[in-house]
Every structure is written in structure tokens, then in C-alpha cells.
Amino acid sequence: MLIRKEHAIALLDLIGHERKKTGTYYTITPEREEVFQELEFQNLAELYNPLQYGLTYWGRALVTILEEMIEKGLIPHPEHWNDEFRWLGTEVITMIDDAIQNNDLPGPLTEKALEERGFIEVKKEEKKGEFKVVNQYAKDIHSIFKNATPRLEISKELAEYIAQTPTGPAETGRLPEGGRYPELLESMRLIAFSVPNSDVYAFTGLGKAVKEALQYIAPSLPVLISEDILYSLIKILDEGFDKLTDTEKETLWELGLVDEEGNLYPGGEKLIEVYRLWKDKEFPEVKTFNIETLEAELLKTIDYIWKEEYTKNPEIVPTVDQIVHFLLEKPLKEYKHVVEYYGRKLNQAFNYKKKEEIKKKFAEVKTVEELFKSFYEKGNEWYEKLYDVVQEALYTLEAFNLITTEEHKDQKVHKLTEHGQKVLEDMKQRGFREILSTAVKAITITNREISAPNLDWYQKAEEEKLVGAGEPTVSGKLYADLAYNIRRLPHITRFELTVLHKIPARGFFLKDVYAQFDETWKEEVTYALNKLEARGYLNILQNEAVVLTEAGELIKRALAGVPEGVAQPLTPIAVRILEALRKVGNLYVKEQRVRILPKNIEEALRLTGLDKKTFDKELVVLRVAGLIGKTSINEAGLLVLKALELLNQ
Questions:
Q1: Sign of CA dihedral 25, 29, 30, 35
Q2: Do residues 272 and 225 touch, judged by C-beta distance below 8 A?
Q3: What span, in angstroms and rounded, lies between the C-alpha atoms of 317 and 178?
Q4: pLDDT confidence band for 592 (50 / 70 / 90)
Q5: Cβ(86)–Cβ(92) under 8 Å?
Q6: SS3 of 198, please?
Q7: Exposed, middle or buried, 491 (CB in 10 Å: 0-12/13-18/19+)?
Q8: Terminal C-alpha separation, the chain
Q9: Is residue 176 classed exposed, middle or buried when 0-12, 13-18 and 19+ CB atoms within 10 A define those classes?
Q10: Are the beta carbons of 283 and 209 closer than 8 angstroms?
Q11: Model confidence over 164-188: pLDDT tens digits?
């Protein structure tokens, strides 16, 4: 949806003419045709005869809102607007949508922009005092946007413009010059702009589908994609090729969409997907992915042990102990880039600032062992802590389906999955680095109906080599695909759970999360938020609102009673055991409990593929966490399993 000064005046002209009840449509001059065409593509105006227009139902609803807002002084008359002022645009609809998702709160990033457009009101509550929310006019416009299906028509000239335009995300300055083509694309919801200032653009989910389909369509007619063409293809599927008129068949043949018998060519198949997105508006939810440098290094270590050490000596396999030993044998200089990871873990453990001390120690010591000993000199506590750090990273890798834990000669060993192998290859080719959830989300958020990443996310994606030359790189496509294709296993650390418990389901922003902790903890909280978002427990919106997902709310409820001393309240291995126990048990719906006969515990062990020692150890943790009883999965455990289901829908 795009309404600038010229569009708003056009809508007011249409409603004014309609009220005169002359029985004729509003006739425009040729100079205004492009503006009215953009309104037509937004389903706000309708072309009846050449240069003659009338309002659609949705256009009438929108201009009525505009008139009321002008009358109440919420916004000046469009005659007084700046020519470039965007009263409505994809970025404005996104700002409104984000606020609605967050209890109507716009937040500091977008509040001013929405206020300038008349979409903010002051609300007062006894406990909260005065605060600003989006008003009913904003919500009504949001409803119009959701219900009005845009028109879709791609001319040969517009197709050429689309072909030379990078898919994005990219800075708006990269858009090729092309008259009003960007306005046409936005009117049809094929591109979107970032909040709050349209710094970044991206082709939307529908836009990307159109752009891809055009690669397979023969540019032999003035119009390459239209609603009539889409309906003809759907008619083939529903009624058969013979039901098409000769003109319809001829059009599909000339565009190279079907063969002589009506079988779909690739272009026709791509347009079926365009039709589905355009008509049903079924866009995937935003998912993301995160991996830290130490976790990537452990992928390399596991791979090395299997390929090099194991082939020389079958007794050497990637157990946690063996991975730690391998780490200790390497010079510290090879792990310089993961010192901050250790710093965060030690900072969390000691409960005060340690990172600067670690940086100082780094200059003094030569090995990882010496580094840890300098903080844990009592007994073997240093080794235990290093073991815990490695184990936590391994849990994260398994939770993201990059490794799997298996039994090997009564030992717990780790193996890379197909996804893990792809990540390792990327790291080897492009450098071992952290991949932030917000950087990956800069790509995956473009799958929505109208969304572009904000500037901060886009810049992070650039830094991490996920976008370049105006489009996702090979690396960016890999991590975006992983966000949707991995099977997530719920996992959460003690510190992540602490952060999660501080966040209500709605009504919070990033600044509110940070305010719950001492400012020296900001880095730790940021990393926790990255993991929580990548795990699928929360969404950070473009306006910096933090909103819990349904799965996140379930995890929060399930782990509400976990004792403080449990370092890993929920591990992917524990979830695998829960799954196995459910399979061998019987659900008692009224009691919200799955009961397991003692004789079936052995079958559960077999289903997990774990060694007995690991299985028994995790059973103890599950009981301490309150997820299972002696012979049953209780309500909290079932909540975790429900979250597992939601995360992998």
C-alpha cells in the first residue's frame, strides 16, 4: 500500500465526484494516469473506461478514514503535504503491524514516524500511567491492507525493470532508475521498504516468486503476467486444458507456459506458485539461525577426529573428553577468536565482569588449559568448567540439527549431520565466524507479505557475508535455508532461561530486556536473545519489540519450576528421551500425563540410540527439572513436547 500526496488527492477527488451522484465516472487527464494506475493496482480504484476511474470498496473505506483524520486535525490536508511524504507505505504498514503484535505499543524506533502520520494516541492506565499506542485509525488501515487483494499485472517493460533490479535486501539507493516502476512494484506488494525510513528494500515473498517466474516466460507479448493468465492456468488444473478458449490457449503457448496438450512448462509451474501466494496470501513465518565461533570450531574438531584420528586409532572417537583434550593440545593463538565466548561463560558463572581479565590473561598464557587454570585453580575445577563450556556448545549444535549424539562402544559420541557438514564447508571457505540470528533474519524476513530488514540487521548480514551485490550470497542462502529446513530440538541454558523469564509475552522492547540486567551484562543478554530467537522462542520485530512465540511461552511455563542449580534446564538429548518415552507410554488426557511401564524403559533407550550411561544421567536431569516423574511424563514434559511440535511445523 502506497499513499503519497498525489495518491491522497486522487482519492479525495474520486470520493468528491462520487458524492455529486452525476452517474458518470471520474475522468482524469493523461498526466495523472500513472497515479491512478497505482491506486488501481492497490485495489483502491477501478478503471471503467480509458481515463475514467471510480473507487473500490477498499478505496472508499480508506478515503473515509483520511477525511475523518483531516477533520479531527490528526493530519494536515494532503494539499499541505511534502511531495515525497509517504503517509502510507510498506514501511508504515509494517510499523503498524509490529505495534499490533506488541499490545499496540509502537516503541521508540517507530513512534515518531507513526505520530507524524496521525496514528498515535495517548492511553492511561492506573499501574502504567500514560503511554502511547497506535489508534483505531491505524488498526482500520491495517485491516484494509489485510483484506484488499492487490491487482497483478507485469508488462514487458516492467519485467525488464524487475530483471535488472537486485532481489535484495539492499540499500534503497541500489534501485535502478526507472520512472515510477518502484511505485508500481510497491503497489502490487512485490517490494517492501524498511522501518522507519525506507533505508533498505527487498522483494517480498510474492515479488521473489514473480521475479523467478519471469526467467521462464517468453517475452513475446505486451503483458507477461496477469490475473487472466493465472486464472487460465488454474482452470487447466481444475477443469482441464480443453475448457480453455482458443484465445486463452494461444496466450499460454506464446508465453511458453504450456505445451500443445496443456502440460505445464516450468514457467507455468512457477506461475501456479505466484497464484497461490497472490490469492491465498500464505507466507511462511519468519525463522532464523545462529551459530557462534566456538560451535563452528567444534564442528571442525569432530570432523577432524573422525577423518584423521579415528582412522589411525579406532579407540579415538569424538567424545566430550576427547574434544576437550584436542582443544587443549592446540596453541591458544589458534583460538584467539573464541576468547570472547569463554569470557561470556565465565562472566555468567562468576556473576561479574571478567572479559577484560581474560583479554589480559590471553597476552600472558600460551594454551587454553593455562587460560582456564588461571580462573579455576582449585582442584580440577578448571577442567570441569572447560568441559561444561564444550558440552553446552555441543548441545546447541545438536539442538540446531548440525550434529547428532549416538552410542559407540558404550560411549556417547558426536557426528556431523548433512546440515553440519554444509556449515563446516561454508566456514572453511569463508572464514570461521559468528552468524547472528538478526543477520539471517535480514534474509528470511523478506519471505513475508511485506517486510524488509531494518538497516541494523542488513548491515550485520553484510558484515557476516550473508548479503552482497544487493542479494543473498551463497552463504546467506545456506543459512536462510537452514533456518527453515533443520529439525529443532528444544534447548535452553540457565542464563537463557533467566532472560526468557524476564520477558512477558507482549509489551516489551529490547531496551526493556536490557533494563532487567546490570549494564555490564548487555553483551551476555544480546547473545542470549540471539539464541532464544534462533531457537524459535521469541521474535524481535523491526520496531525492536520482543514478542514470545507460542513455543516460547510453552517452554517458559514448562521450566518455571526448575531449581537454580541446574546448569542446562533442557537439553536436546533430554528432549529425545522425552519423545521416546511418549512413544512407549500411554497418554492419560484428564491427568495430563503419559505413564510408562517399567518394562518399556529399555525400549525407550533403544529408540533414542544413546548409551545407557547418558540415558540414565539425562533421566535424572529430567526429574530434577520437573518434566518427568518416576514412571511418567507430567504436564511440564508434555508442554515441552508440544513446543517441539510447534517448532517443526
A1: negative
A2: no
A3: 60
A4: confident
A5: yes
A6: coil
A7: buried
A8: 30
A9: exposed
A10: no
A11: 999 999 999 999 987 899 999 999 9
Residue 512 and residue 107 in contact, taking contact as beta carbons nearer than 8 Å: no
Q: Cell 506461475, residue?
A: 271
What is d(CA 643, CA 552) in angstroms, rounded to the nearest whole number?
7
Cα–Cα distance for residue pair 120/106, rounded to 1 Å: 8
User: What 3-state DSSP class applies to 431?
Assistant: coil
Task: Give the separation between CA 25 and CA 531, rounded to whole angstroms.
Answer: 57
Q: What was the pLDDT predicted at 342?
A: 66
From residue 641, how far is each of 42, 449, 554, 563 by CA, in Å? 43, 30, 9, 20
**% helix, strand, coil for the chain, step of 5:** 55, 15, 30
Give 406's pLDDT tier (boundaries 50, 70, 90).
very high
Nearest residue to 3 (alpha-carbon basis) of 86, 70, 77: 86
Phi, psi of 331 (to 5 degrees): -60, 145
Using pLDDT thresholds of 50, 70 and 90, give the confidence band for residue 638: very high
> What are the helix (H) ranges across 332-401?
339-350, 355-362, 368-373, 381-399
- Report the amino acid identity of residue 116: E
**Count helices and strands in the chain by DSSP H and E runs:** 31, 22
The candidate with the shortest Cα–Cα distance to 152, out of 180, 178, 204, 190, is: 190
Q: Regarding predicted confidence, which is higher, 346 or 228?
A: 228
DSSP string, 23-36: SSPEE--GGGHHHH
Identify which has the larger pLDDT, 330 or 122.
Answer: 122
Q: Do 25 and 52 contact (CB within 8 A), yes or no?
A: yes
Q: Which amino acid is at 130?
A: E
Q: How confident is the model at residue 11 (pLDDT cuts 50, 70, 90)?
A: very high
Position 351 pLDDT exceeds 60: no
Q: How far apart are CA 567 and CA 391, in angstroms?
A: 11
Q: What residue segments make up the domains of the chain, in order of their start?
A: 3-87, 89-147, 153-280, 293-434, 494-647
All three cell numbers of 345, joined, read 561463560
CA–CA separation, 330 and 202 (whole Å): 44
Question: Judging by beta carbons within 10 Å of its beta carbon (0-12, 13-18, 19+), is residue 355 exposed, middle or buried?
Answer: middle
pLDDT digits (tens, 9 = 90+) for 92-131: 999 999 999 999 999 999 999 999 999 999 999 888 889 9
Yes or no: say if 132 and 111 are a contact pair by the CB < 8 Å rule.
yes
| CATH numeric code, 494-647 | 1.10.10
CB 174 within 8 A of CB 240: no
Closest to 436 (Cα-Cα) out of 459, 419, 460:
460
Q: Which three cell numbers stand for residue 536?
A: 524459535
**DSSP string computed for 478-509:** HHHHHHHHS-----B-HHHHHHHHT--SSSEE
